[in-house]
Amino acid sequence: MNSLQRNKVNKLIKLIVTTILEEVDEEICVINKKKLWVRKWIDRREKLGATNCLLKELALEDPKEYFDSLRMSESCVNFLLNKIHSQIQRKDTLLRSAIPAITKLQAVLYFLATGCSLRTLTHIFRLGKSTISEFIIEVCAAIYESLTEFIKIPTTTDWKIIENGFRNQWHFPGCCGAIDGKHVVIKAPPESGSLYYNYKETNSIVLMAVVDHKYCFSYIDVGCTGRVSDGGVFRNCSLYQELENGILPEDHVLVGDNAFPLKEYLLKPFPGNRLTSQQKIFNYRLSRARRIVENAFGILAARFRVFEKPMPYSPEKVVKIVKTCCALHNWLRQTELQNKQYEYTVDKENYEAGTIVPGNWRNEPESLGMQPLPISLSNRSSQRSIDRRERYANYFVGSGSVSWQTRMIH
């Protein structure tokens, strides 16, 4: 190779090396800029995000507003955080610090309490929209798993405790719960056709629940598609088969409204307007016990405004959100950590005036994201079911009567 060729090769090598170095410098510059942007974003989150700014200030200066923002007291939030911290906390990386578990938890609780959009959460907590979308379901799953002891199918002993509660508090012996269901309105998934289309001309999945004497959900079934008829919803939920197989103690019942069929284990009101005094009294006594489930659903929707409007998430995600809300509802009604003075009140009866005093949850705006089941058109009931309802009707005007029942039916 002569000197001229060597010079050309050297120039080419120099050009290549220079180009590579420039590209590396550009990449390093981009990485540094990204690191700087991430650092600024994290700094802003730490200084201006709700966790270290607004919510911390409310916890110290305005506990009521803190409660309204997350639907629970600070001590409840801290208790939940200790239970799920290891499940939702990620490790830091070289590029960025992991989002603190407390920020994730507060963001999800704020989302459930207000039903706000992901964009709103982005502004309040200084988190990326896609990041929030990813961890909402993760945190919901962790909360539900940590609170499963508060929402499980009752054992034989549990049924007896519930029956004793209905006997003493609601004067309805043999009752093991009040049953009802709601259509939880969702945005129709792509290519789902009419699978989730219900009688209200919306798309939904169904929440079926049994509530105990303390307004807690003792059983829930979530996920049946809204297209299934009212009777089909009940027949297709897991509780139906359990009831058919005798999950309740012998000769015990649930109480429901006209959305359900009359069964030996499920009592419903006498239909029609031309009722005898005995039938009216039975309907009042059943309605009095069944009002528990109405209040439970009402408090659930008032506490968690995520039910205020249709949920724009996949049915699988909505199921997890609904289960989490039910578990939180039960826990908050039972835990001593909750500040009871801020809790919603339930309906009360004024026996002297013969009126019902509404609970304050009824003052909240109606939740358009939760709709009732339609009235059942099934009139085929077994004679044993009819006889059981008659025996209760006779009992309520005989040895099981209460002094105020005549005033209440008039």
Secondary structure elements and their pairing?
Layout: H1 3-48, H2 54-61, H3 63-70, H4 74-88, H5 101-114, H6 118-125, H7 129-146, H8 156-169, E1 175-186, E2 203-211, E3 217-225, H9 230-236, H10 238-244, E4 253-255, E5 266-267, H11 277-303, H12 315-334, E6 348-350, E7 355-357, E8 370-372, H13 383-396, H14 405-409
Parallel strand pairs: 1-4, 4-5
Antiparallel strand pairs: 1-2, 1-8, 2-3, 6-7
Helix pairs in contact: 2-3, 4-5, 4-7, 5-7, 7-12, 11-13
In short:
The protein is built from 14 helices and eight strands.
Radius of gyration: 29 Å
Largest beta-sheet details: 6 strands, mixed
Share of β-strand residues: 5-15%
Q: Based on DSSP secondary structure assignment, what is the total number of beta strands?
A: 8
Fraction of residues in H or I helices:
40-55%
Supply the number of helical segments: 14
Uncertain residue ranges: none
Helix-strand sequence: HHHHHHHHEEEHHEEHHEEEHH
Can you give the mean pLDDT?
87
Report on the architecture of this protein:
- The structure is a single chain.
- By secondary structure, this protein is α/β, with parallel strands linked by helices.
- 51% of the residues lie in helices and 11% in strands.
- The protein has helices at residues 3-48, 54-61, 63-70, 74-88, 101-114, 118-125, 129-146, 156-169, 230-236, 238-244, 277-303, 315-334, 383-396, 405-409, and strands at residues 175-186, 203-211, 217-225, 253-255, 266-267, 348-350, 355-357, 370-372.
- The strands form 2 sheets. Strands 1, 2, 3, 4, 5 and 8 form a 6-stranded mixed beta sheet that branches. The protein has a two-stranded antiparallel sheet with strand order 6-7.
- Helix 7 (129-146) packs across helix 12 and helix 11 (277-303) crosses helix 13.
- The longest helix is centred in the first third of the chain and has 46 residues, at 3-48.
- The model has no long low-confidence stretch (mean pLDDT 87).
